[in-house]
Amino acid sequence: xxxxxxxxxxxxxxxxxxxxxxxxxxxxxxxxxxxxxxxxxxxxxxxxxxxxxxxxxxxxxxxxxxxxxxxxxxxxxxxxxxxxxxxxxxxxxxxxxxxxxxxxxxxxxxxxxxxxxxxxxxxxxxxxxxxxxxxxxxxxxxxxxxxxxxxxxxxxxxxxxxxxxxxxxxxxxxxxxxxxxxxxxxxxxxxxxxxxxxxxxxxxxxxxxxxxxxxxxxxxxxxxxxxxxxxxxxxxxxxxxxxxxxxxxxx
Length: 251
What we know:
- It contains nine helices and seven strands, in the order αβαβαβαβαβαβαααβ.
- By secondary structure, the protein is α/β, with parallel strands linked by helices.
């Protein structure tokens, strides 16, 4: 697998921690040049990869701001000359709340980051990939893109939207040499989930007990699937939502 990624260019959003950082490391370890994009400064993470002998650079960007996204993608393409892979991962959680009580501010911010953020990055990634005539995009949806959970309407709406966008775009670009898919992680041990384990301990315990595998997932387990979707091993996989959820949706 390493040869097919060597000196290719990958962009990962939400790359300062969790699944994004795990994916950035995975791309770097197989020889790709990696652009770590985050609203927080990810220079420390990029420097750590560089010190380990890998190729990485960090960019600060708010995925919800189209102008910032356009400038960031153009900088990445300008610096490296191309863009081969993208893992659009950046996302936020909304506090658990009945739909009738969710403020417009919470709804708008959730949609702006989770759905519009991927829309923004896909738009400019696709412009570059279309010029090249090739590329692979993987969008991070969620278990919440496949099922409903009480108190999570805004979050799940954003994650369901990602799948609709992924499927439609995949059909548009399949004939142009660009493959687009999504991953749907279950309950993965990330800083976001760690916070939920503290603040929503009872509800989270119930969810974990419902997992056939009876444990939380690891960020690296998502990164492995992202890498597979970007590899030549999955060249006939288009417009799919790959569940990586410990068996939850198989029930």
